[in-house]
Design brief:
This protein is of the alpha/beta class. The protein has two domains: 55 residues, no CATH class; 144 residues, Nucleotidyltransferase, domain 5 (2-Layer Sandwich), CATH 3.30.420.40. The strands form two sheets. Strands 7-6-5-8-9 form a five-stranded mixed sheet, sandwiched between helices. A four-stranded mixed sheet has the order 3-2-1-4, covered by helices on one side. Helix 1 crosses helix 6. It is globular, with a radius of gyration of 18 Å. It starts with 6 loop residues before the first strand and ends with a helix.
Length: 236
Amino acid sequence: MSLRGDTRWLLVGNSRWHWAAEQQGQRRYWSVPSAQDIEVQPQRWAAVGAVPVGLLDPARQLLLDQVPLQQMPQALGIDRALAGFQAWSLAQAPVLVADAGTALSLTWIDGRGRFAGGRLMAGAALQLRALHQGTQALPAIDMAAVAASGAALEPWPRQTAQALLTGVFEGLAGALQRAARQLALQEPQLQLWLTGGDAGRLATLLNGATGDQTPGCWRWDPGLCLDGLARVAELS
């Protein structure tokens, strides 16, 4: 993507680099596998993955202690902090944020803007890779091809590859549903937010094909982390 005269933000993930650009009030998002597509230095950037030396201006890096969440542990990933802060800023209520990327992270921010805990598990691609590498018969799954196809999951597949996909995504969705039910007992006003590369497929499983956004459903926001980065950059 090439936009002239835009403002850019960058989040360096574990497996992909995630960009946002704003031009004339319109914000756009895209991801690339590596740093090869850098055309313009971002206004601000943050990283959870490795950054090649000399590629990005260190003076523009946004660090964890600049995110205005209370009671954050020092080891918290800045992507989780940014997504949690953005969701809480929009909701002004307790939030549970699921970021479905390389890892599936759950981040709980209470109604006062305090980090209250979370959970971590392997994301879809990691689970599928482990199943392939840890067995002799289970095939490798090309997640890029799966995403490009846009095909819906079969509830009870007869083919092995489809059975792997359905099993992994249904397992992730089940983990999110259980976490939401547990936390809602403590936080009656809880809002549920979903972001990350696998969020669209999970949103369909969790909310149905209509994308239901009634109370108790998951709000799918693909730009949550980068919007949080832009928000914190304005404050710092």
